[in-house]
Amino acid sequence: MPINKKTEPLYNSAYLQIKKDIMTGRYQPGKRLTDKELADQLGISRTPIREALKQLIKEGLLSNEHNKGVSVFSPTLQDIAEIYVLRSSLEGIAAAICAGNERRKDYLYYMMEQLDISRKAEEAQDINQLVESNMHFHDLLLKGSESERLRNLIEPLRSKSMLMRYSSLTNKQHSKISVMEHEQIFEMVRQGEVVKAEKYTRKHILSAGNRLIKLIYEDESYGRNNSEWSMLAKNYSSYITSLLQEIKIDP
């Protein structure tokens, strides 16, 4: 898709478009990207493309391996487990702060708006829209915490996790569960339930990570017949399940 050359610096427009294409699954993990191909697609020269790629490599969304070139980051099972466990703790804190923020009403309207978009996208199975609204909802939780330190810690983790989240949201049952869990989090934030907002958010992210690991395990393209790989997947799933069991939410 050609980008608008008049609104902002070309490298930034290219960066945003390529990042969006990565996050919404157009460029799948492991896909090789070349500056020529991207320049042709976006209708601009290679120079701003190279600047955009450098930034995405710095953020960890792209890998640059010797003799292999630039490709979309392809997380291992260990990467997925670590990222989701870290996210669950950090975003749980962000949700708790947001729920206790006297200015949270400034964010609730937009969170409700994203929930409405998510419901419609889930019903229509519009995966691209569902992924975008998912990202926006979590971003609003983070904004509601009004913590720059948390943002700096969470954003790189969330970007990487969304690389694989697209695969999970294509599963209708998974996407429905995700929307329902967002509704629970929203309600706890709206009511100012600090502890419950934190717990529901942790539970949501850990559950998403667990569903993703199980989904990958069931996908033959990931080599589920490899016994060593299968055992690793089960071990990580068991670890996340044990963390979920520790989260007790009072009625």
TrEMBL record:
Domain (HTH gntR-type) ranges: 8-75
Listed Pfam families: FCD, GntR
SUPFAM superfamilies for the chain: GntR ligand-binding domain-like, Winged helix' DNA-binding domain
InterPro entries named in the record: AsnC-type_HTH_dom, GntR_C, TF_FadR/GntR_C, Tscrpt_reg_HTH_GntR, WH-like_DNA-bd_sf, WH_DNA-bd_sf
UniProt keyword Transcription regulation, yes or no: yes
PROSITE patterns xrefs: HTH_GNTR
GO MF entries: DNA-binding transcription factor activity; sequence-specific DNA binding
Keywords: DNA-binding, Transcription, Transcription regulation
Highest taxon listed in the record's lineage: Bacteria
Identification of the protein by name: HTH gntR-type domain-containing protein
Species this protein is from: Formimonas warabiya
Phylogenetic placement of the source organism: Bacteria, Bacillati, Bacillota, Clostridia, Eubacteriales
